[in-house]
Every structure is written in structure tokens, then in C-alpha cells.
Amino acid sequence: MTAQGQLSALVALIADATKIVETHYQKSPKNYVPSLDDIEPHPLDNDILDKELRTAIQTIEGACAQLSATVARPSHTLVNRFMTVFETSCVNVAATFKIPDILQEKPEGMHISEIGQKSGLDERKIGRILRALATKHCFREVSKDVFANNRLSILLVSSNPLSNLALHFTDECMKSAALLSETLADPEWGPSYSPSQCAFTRFTKYPKPMFEYFEGLDSPEGARRGARFGLGMMAWGSATEAGAVITEFPWAELGKGATVCDVGGGIGNITMQLAKKYPTLKLILQDLPERIQQAKNEVWPKECPLAIQENRIQFEPIDFFTQSPVKGCDVYYLKNIIHDWPDVDCIKILSSVKKAMGPHSRVLIQEYILRPANRVPDDQSNLEQAPEPLLPNYGVGRIRQYNVDVDMMILLNSQERNIDGFIKLGETAGLKIVKVWDLGELGLVEFGLP
């Protein structure tokens, strides 16, 4: 296909995908496409999107980015990308000083003089920061130096877990990322896959892995960041539509009284969703003691008290490197666990789970399944490829999994994996792959005993 033909093809993909998106919004309960100026949630905002709509959005994102990169001067495109760090810094300022909360006092818009007074920031500087964000469609400038929340910024109010997620990424993640080159160049740390020899370790100067830092036993700052991370993971699950596992996996077929063990489940975001939708399931949440105490004493009594009252949830601390989960559960569910660790530790975790399994137990691993960026013949691909001339992995439309892959390198010296990587880990731990479930952004890899 010629370069000119590629441009026309990309434009056609965008047009066709936009029609699909419009159709889905018109079928929604409120029958409208939301404006960026809206601050009230749209019914589709919290729904699990069906495959057609999700694919259309991925196509628009990927094709728009590819079209822009194709037509603009290369230097123009690259310099803009170099400067995305400043957007991250501005988001950190907005979340740290709770600017969205302040703007809620005047939904019609607030002058920077008042924003500065309420936030304790210099008014001209906060105005420049908000203008930079508004230019990227987060906040809006109603009139000169008067700003208001919009569809994106309203999600950064401090009561929304997404604010905690924003602070995690724009604080420890960004500061650690600045040290990635330095870490890779280190003769000892560069080739290492130890979770204690990564950019995050270099930033915090804490000699142990990130999750021990987050436990906060000897670092109050680590404890603060760990609690924030735990809340942020609730928003991460929503953003990545991790809840698709609730509707797409046949939990009801497990039978009344079946036991599901959420291994390393943090404060139990997915487990809470299971508790609400499938009241006949018995649930066990297992993680490090600090997270289990946070879940048991703070989160579940507020978010899912009925499961506690009906004794359907059991909170059990675990160190999954030295202990096996509760024995004999029907399902052992691990979401975003395997990607936290190098292969040798993943095999330890899965081997510990295997020891706890009964004859009919199964293991469910919900994570990204990386796709290659090169196109192969369709009969040689085990994952659906995007239509040409898009990159076969949808490019920017699925960029988050590749960003997270690098984030895992920075924070934990770990990685996201392709399907062959999951199969190899399972086989080494003595498990047999049963099925790969397509849940949209995340995949679900099911293992059983041989």
C-alpha cells in the first residue's frame, strides 16, 4: 500500500469506528455522546464495554496516533513526545493540591487568584499548569484565567481512587523512571532481575523490594505510599476493565458454596465484585498483613459489609513465597501478580498454589497478554490482529500494556508476558494450560493440574 493509500485507509478506519461508537452511545440509557465539558458521569463510563465498542475505540486511538505520526515532521512528533513528562508533572500538582476538589466549589469556573488562595500556590504558576492541562483536555479554561472541571479532571477529586492512582504514577513511578538509564548502565544492576536492583530501589534507597517498602514496617513514607497504592489499584481495575472477569467467566457454574481464593488480591477489589454478584460463593482474600488489615478494617466494612455479616469472606495474610494459599479451593485467582516478579519467583508462587490445589481446582491468571508489533499471517497468530494499515497490536490503541511492561521493569525488575511465556511458567510449576479467555484489555489464562 502506498503512503497516500495508507492515509486514506487510516481516515476510513477512523470514520467507520466513529460510527460504531456513536451507535453504541445512542443505544445507551441517556442516548447521547458525552461532551468533554460534562462533569456528570455517563452510563457507559462504568460499564464493561462490549467487544465491538472496545475495538472501535482502540482503532480510533491507534489510527489517530498513526495518522499524526505519518503526516507530521519526525522532529515535531519526537519533541512533543519528549515533553510528555511535563504533563505528568502538572497532573501531580493538580492531584497533590486537590485542585479538582477546589473547583467543585464553583462548577461554572474559578479565577486563578481564588484557586491560588485556596491551594496555597502562586496564582500565576497554577494558572500556567492548568492551562497546559486544559490544552490536553483535562480541565477547561472557561474564560481568561478562569478554570473549571471537565469530564477528565472531575475523576481526580480526592475521594476518587483514581486520584490515588494518579499520585502513584506521577510520584514514585515518574521519579524512578528518571533513573532507568542510570540503572541499566550499572554493571551489576543492569543485567539483574532482582526486585532489589531496579530504578525504584535507586530512587527510594530502600534495600528491599517495592512491596516490602509499601508494607512500611521501617519506612513511614513507604507505608503512606503503600496505602495510596492499595486504593489506587481499585481505580486501575476500573480503568483496565478488570471487572470483565466477573461477567465473562462462568462463576455460577462452580456451584453453590464453591470457594474462590484471591491470592495477592490487595484490598480485594475483584473479590468485592464477586461477593456482590455471586452471593453463593465463599471467598478468601490473601495478601501481606498490612493490606489484609486495610481490607478487613477499613475497606470492606464500608464497601461490602454484607459479605462480612454473612461470613462469606475470609481474610488471611500470606507470604506466597514461603506459604501456600488456603488448601482445597475451587479457584485460585491471581490478578496482576505474575507480572510483578521475575520467572524464578513466578514459578515459586505457582508451585505454592499447586501444592494447595485439589483434583478439580483451577488457577486463573488475569493480566496483560503482550502482542508483537510485527504482522504475521493470520493463520500463524494466536491473537486477533488489527486491520491494515494499523499496527497489528493496535499501536497506541493498546499502548497501556507496553507502558506497564516498562513500569514493571522500573518498579520491580519484572515484566508483562506473551502467551508462550505464561505457558512456560505454568508447565515449569507443574500446571497445564486449559484455556485463554479474551476479556478485552486484560486476558485470563486458566491452568489446571495435569
Features:
11% strand; alpha/beta; Arc Repressor Mutant, subunit A; Rossmann fold; globular; 450 residues
Mean pLDDT: 95
Provide the structure class. Answer: alpha/beta
SSE ordering: HHHHHEHHEEHHHHHHEHEHHEEHEHHEE
CATH superfamily of the domain at 240-369 and 417-448: Vaccinia Virus protein VP39
Helix count equals 19
Q: What is the CA-based Rg, rounded?
A: 23 Å
Helix content estimate = 40-55%
Strand neighbour order, sheet with most strands = 6-5-4-7-8-10-9
CATH class of the domain at 240-369 and 417-448: Alpha Beta
Largest sheet geometry:
7 strands, mixed
Domain O-methyltransferase C-terminal: 254-379
Pfam families: Dimerisation (PF08100), Methyltransf_2 (PF00891)
Organism: Crucibulum laeve
Protein name: S-adenosyl-L-methionine-dependent methyltransferase
Topology:
Blueprint: H1 3-27, H2 51-71, H3 74-82, H4 84-96, H5 99-103, E1 110-111, H6 112-119, H7 123-135, E2 140-143, E3 146-148, H8 161-177, H9 180-185, H10 199-204, H11 210-215, H12 220-239, H13 244-248, E4 259-263, H14 269-277, E5 282-287, H15 289-303, H16 305-309, E6 313-317, E7 331-335, H17 343-356, E8 362-367, H18 399-412, H19 419-428, E9 432-438, E10 443-448
Parallel strand pairs: 4-5, 4-7, 5-6, 7-8
Antiparallel strand pairs: 1-3, 2-3, 8-10, 9-10
